[in-house]
Amino acid sequence: MEIDTDVIIVTASEAGERLDKILAARYENRHSRTYFQYLIEEHLVSLNGAPVKKRIKPIEGDEIEVHFVLTPQTEVQPEPIPLDILYEDDDILVVNKPAGMVVHPAPGNWTGTFVNALLHHCQDLAADPNDVRPGIVHRLDKETSGVLIAAKNLLAQQKLIEQFANRKVKKQYTAICVGNPGKGEISAPIGRHPVHRKKMTVIEGGKPAVSHYETLAYDERLSLVSIKPITGRTHQIRVHMKHLGHPILGDPVYGNPSFNKKMGIQRQLLHAEKLSLIHPVSGKDLTFNAPMPQDMNYL
Predict the structure, then answer these.
(1) For residue 93, which phi and psi values (nearest 5 degrees)?
(2) Burial category of 22 from C-beta neighbours within 10 Å (exposed 0-12, middle 13-18, buried 19 and up)
(3) Neighbouring-strand partners of residue 106
(4) What's the predicted TM-score (pTM) here?
(5) Which helix (H) or strand (E) holds 3?
(6) What is the pLDDT of residue 2?
(7) Any catalytic annotation for residue 219?
(8) 25, 191, 205, 225: which has the highest count of C-beta atoms within 10 A?
């Protein structure tokens, strides 16, 4: 899953400029030109899918993909941010992430993230000091609330990542959706939108994506829906619900803008309610539940 990547399209005014200069201008006040030169040299920047040199001058319409990482000059700092802890032992930490919290540092959000809070809470966290995502084994979108698990040592991190990759982790979400999707399974491949490159969409040739869904309550306008994603694609639930014609209320990217405005909702009403997995060290079956946030009490 791409979580530290941004994609931009070269405009007519940028065409003919050096690649590193274009990136420095696009991310002004966030990163220096030297930083982007470092990324390019480390093959972390691609042009139309291929690594390039900093001296290259893209043309209008070219696609630039940037993978942001920490450099020796950048270090994630511990911050005393309160955490709603659901469970903790020597190997893992499970929290109820609030809506609005970013999971890990990324462009525009280098502070105030769950990782900053994690480093303060677990001051002996065993992790690579140059890793922008210490302890992270999965993620939730910024405005999605609910169960989030982190590893406190490298062994636990590796084991948990394997469980997620092998689809051994069972996830259950709750959403407030527009209309009534009913009950069923959607199997629809997801990939980047061919025009809006920062968005995902159901598209032929995308990665396989499967979600189970069931309406729990309906009031002729909105529904409370339980959703179990079998795969873990970027924005999977939000994309699938849009594809079904029942977008998540408040979703600024995949939702209904006029209806969202009418309802006065500030974030997508999606909550990671339950997470079941095997403890990475003890081997015990564990299930964690996060209570529904107040802003989702519509039905």
Answers:
(1) -130, 130
(2) buried
(3) 109
(4) 0.79
(5) none
(6) 39
(7) no
(8) 225
Best CA proximity match to 247, nearest among 234, 261, 260, 232: 260
CA torsion 15→17→19→21, rounded to 10°? -130
Q: Cα separation of 221 and 180, whole Å?
A: 8
CATH of region 73-166, choose from 3.90.550.10, 3.40.50.1400, 3.40.1650.10, 3.30.2350.10? 3.30.2350.10
Q: What's the CATH code, domain 5-67?
A: 3.10.290.10
* 126: amino acid identity, one letter: A
Cα distances from 241 to residues 101, 156, 196, 202, 215, in angstroms, run 23, 33, 18, 11, 12
Measured CA to CA in angstroms, residue 215 lies from 150, 188, 218, 254 at distances of: 30, 19, 7, 19
- pLDDT tens-place string over residues 55-102: 899 999 999 999 887 665 556 789 999 999 999 999 999 999 999 999
Low-confidence spans in the chain with pLDDT less than 70: 1-4, 70-75, 106-108, 127-132, 197, 299
Reported as type and span, the H/E element at residue 160 is helix 154-165
> Of residues 6, 62, 141, 251, which has the active-site annotation?
141
pLDDT at 1: 34
